[in-house]
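Model it.
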Amino acid sequence: MIQPVNFGKTKRVGFIITHKVRVAPIRQWASSLDQQRTDVGKLHVYIDVQALSNVTLDAILSDLKFHITHLTNF
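Modeled.
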């Protein structure tokens, strides 16, 4: 499960991963980040993974692919 963190600022977003996460939720928040980045420009992203075992290898690779294609956007 991915829970959003509210920082109260439009350029700062965060997520806490508390339970098993697969590729679909990663793609959902990646899409959300893309939309926010389009709206406000560069973002500061905070991600707290409670336990690495909560994230599947496919989800990690999907997340890594997202970060590699957006290195200069955050």
